[in-house]
Design a protein that fits this description.
The structure is a single chain. The chain is of the alpha/beta class. It has a single domain, classed as Aldolase class I (TIM Barrel, Alpha-Beta Barrel), CATH 3.20.20. The protein is built from 12 helices and 8 strands. It is globular and about 45 Å long. Bound molecules: phosphoenolpyruvate.
Length: 253
């Protein structure tokens, strides 16, 4: 059975005290709403990871938003997967479109980061998705297939079964434009079919595929009700405890 996950991405928001106070609210609210083996995660800036892990009481898991592809060394300003793991974090976002766009991260680099994260027992939340131009030109299926092939299809079946995928159409991130449930389901089904061709039906069935892009408390129930959508990667709405908790609640739809 694949896991249902709602993961928040705080991006470059929340100073130290703001982060503690928002996270404490989230833990208190999510504790009452999360069912069974559903998973809630907050992916926070590096400064927060250790303190949030101490406050999480196992109710909300902690993730980072990036890691370096190398183990350690002279990479001033960078953070390694081992360091992230040592804070008590369990997840790391890899390949967010903002990293691809503003930091020129390529599929090949992201594949290296994924391998390193797995080596240190972090669960990569690997993001894929097309830009508006790619959607309008009709090339989005090829784009998604290339991101999968070059980014994660080099993994062994054992390693692939440990990752989470997030489909995030770039045109929907932070724009207020959401893919319709049908548009999102269409791509999620395509992604699952590609996984099935590569790794077989059991791994395809068990892979968690999140939707991200202006997902909020209002649209989450319909999105999460789609057969191949297993939760969400949430940007803006993860900065408000009530909104984030209501999205976690929508996992029950
Ligand atoms: C994101 O940054 O991953 C994201 C989905 O952002 P938003 O929810 O704000 O569109």
């Amino acid at each position: 059975m694949r896991k249902k996950i709602v993961a928040g991405n705080w991006k470059m928001n929340m100073d130290y005290n703001e982060g503690i106070s928002l996270f404490s609210e989230i833990v208190n609210m999510v504790r009452d709403e999360k069912k069974g083996d559903q998973v809630a995660v907050i992916c926070a800036p590096f400064i927060h990871l250790n303190s949030l892990a101490q406050l999480s009481s196992g109710v909300v898991k902690i993730g980072a938003q990036n890691c370096h592809q190398n183990e350690s060394g002279a990479y001033t300003g960078e953070i390694s997967a081992k360091m992230i793991k040592s804070t008590g974090s369990d997840y790391v976002i890899i390949g967010h479109s903002e990293r691809r766009q503003y930091f020129a991260e390529t599929d090949v680099l992201l594949s290296e980061k994924t391998t390193t994260a797995l080596k240190h027992n972090l669960t990569p939340i690997f993001c894929i998705g097309e830009t508006l131009d790619e959607r309008n030109s009709g090339s989005y299926f090829q784009v998604i297939e290339r991101q999968l092939t070059d980014g994660v299809f080099n993994l062994s079946a054992e390693d692939f079964s440990k990752i989470v995928l997030a489909y995030e159409p770039v045109w929907a991130i932070g724009t207020g434009l959401t893919a319709t449930p049908e548009q999102a389901q269409d791509i999620h089904a395509f992604i699952r079919a590609k996984i099935e061709s590569k790794y077989g039906v059991n791994i395809a069935d068990d892979t968690t595929i999140l939707y991200g892009g202006s997902c909020n408390a209002k649209n989450a129930p319909e999105l999460f009700a789609q057969h191949d959508i297993d939760g969400g990667l949430i940007g803006g709405a993860s900065l408000k405890s009530r909104d984030f908790t209501d999205i976690v609640k929508a996992l029950n739809s």
